[in-house]
Amino acid sequence: MTPLVLAGLVGASLVGLGLYGLILHPHPLRKLLAFNLIGNGVFLVFGIVARRGAAAGFRFDPVPQAMVITGIVVAFAASALAVAIILRLSAESGRVTLDPEAWTKPNGGDAK
Amino acid sequence: MSILPYVDIGLALLVVGIASTTVAARDLFAAVVGYVAYGLLLAFVWIRLYAPDVALTEAAVGSGVTGVLLITAGKRLGALKNAVPDAQPALAFKLLAGALAALVAGALGAAILLLPDPPPSLAPEAAAAADGAGAGLGNPITAVLMSYRSVDTMLEKLVLILAVVGVWSVGSDKAWGSAPAELRQPKATAPMVFLAQTLAPVGVLIAIHIFWTGANAPGGAFQGGALLAAMWMVIMMAQLAKLPRIDAQWLRMALVSGPAVFLIFGLAGELTAGSFFAYPHSLAKPIILFIEAFMVLSIAAALPMLVAGPPSERPDQ
After folding, report:
1. ipTM at complex level
2. Confidence of residue B133 (pLDDT cuts 50, 70, 90)
3. Would you call A39 exposed, middle or buried from its count of C-beta atoms within 10 A (0-12, 13-18, 19+)?
4. Would you call B23 and A18 a contact, using CB atoms and an 8 Å cutoff?
């Protein structure tokens, strides 16, 4: 197995692990972390596409690599926005949850 | 040469193993610490893919700043009263989710094994860009970011600003204009102050070096900016500097300066070089470095503001 395929399979397993965590974890921040794992997996798969596209004297295709760099920064910006929304939601409802029914329950509303 | 395959296999096992522990960890703090370690190891995988620029970005932004963001968020959530977590899901649901995740990962793995041969590549176009509009740049990634895909890079800076606006706007109405909550409560410890005083000057120099060398070698505006941002956060965590008020003029100027300068030069390219985001050939390198300097400033201002969160009411105001 070449290092390239190995890195690609790591990317695929990261997507699987992240998806599992995203579905199962009730805690919104844990969901966010799992979502970042999916993102890393996708970037890694794109990275091996970049490595395979070696041509014109480069050992890699610079276009996908540049897009991954842009992608990492955008993923961070989106995570920061998600964190801000999660914190505000929890401060308003007094519950750390994404379950919409929890906020309408009587003990959820007057918790703060 | 012979040891490298084992390094690859070891790295792959470590990355997947630590990623599993971040998913399986019992509490949030353990998961975030695992995530930071995993991000650093992932940076090594990127180096093995001949992508040192991506490795630098992943180590700085992907694991470093994201780790600070999640730890800070976890502390703020923990400080809330009545923060009751939900119950764990049932076993049948877990099995179903596991099966779905395995299916998706398996399909993706199969796709990787069946990638087309010969592989498609944009490298010749990128080489042309590095030769033409990005003339004088030895680093093809920087040539792609600043010349071949320059509109993407400019829009990505706008996304950062939009995210900052989004984060600020989820704060309460009363707090608008004031500074975000402190990154570290309530008092900085002596080791933290010592670390900030020792690390920050060195870190700032390294950040400037990474930005400057990025024209010809791995590095660039993203990596340098992220490192500067990290140093600013270390200083603020040690409470050697206060978080700025979000209505501070200088902060807002710093935030928009990157995309603004980029856009001005892009529009000027229409007049001087004949097309949007084209640079006059002889001046391409100095112009690109000039634009990148403002992008470093923008990134260094935006990342800490994203971590610090919305403005909050303070007792003293």
Report:
1. 0.87
2. low
3. buried
4. yes
Q: Is residue A112 part of a domain?
A: no
Number of C-beta neighbours around residue B136 at 10 A: 17
B106/A99 CB distance under 8 A: no
- pLDDT attached to residue B303: 92
Q: Does residue A67 fall inside a structural domain?
A: yes
Angle (nearest 5°) at CA B298 between B296 and B302: 120
Residue A38, in any domain of the structure: yes
What's the burial of B173, exposed, middle or buried (CB within 10 Å: 0-12/13-18/19+)?
exposed
**pLDDT tens by residue, B105-127:** 999 988 888 887 777 777 777 77
pTM of the model: 0.88
Listed residue (B207, B300, B216, B213) closest to B258, CA to CA: B300
Yes or no, beta carbons of B62 and A3 under 8 Å apart: no
Q: CA-to-CA distance for B309 and B173, rounded, in angstroms?
A: 14
**What's the gap in Å between the CA of B242 and the closest CA on chain A?**
20
CATH number at residue A38: 1.10.287.3510
* Residue among B42, B76, B102 minimizing CB distance to A40: B42
Where along chain B do its domains lie? 125-317
CA end-to-end distance (rounded Å), chain A: 56
CB contacts of A44 in chain B (<8 Å) are: 42, 45
Cα–Cα dist B60/A104, whole Å: 40
Task: Please tell me which of the candidates B62, B97, B306 has its beta carbon nearest to residue A77.
Answer: B306
Closest CB to A66: pick one of B23, B77, B144: B144
Place of tokens 């019992």: B26
Domain that residue A9 falls in: 3-103
Question: A35 vs chain B: nearest CA distance in angstroms?
Answer: 10
Residue A110 lies in a domain: no
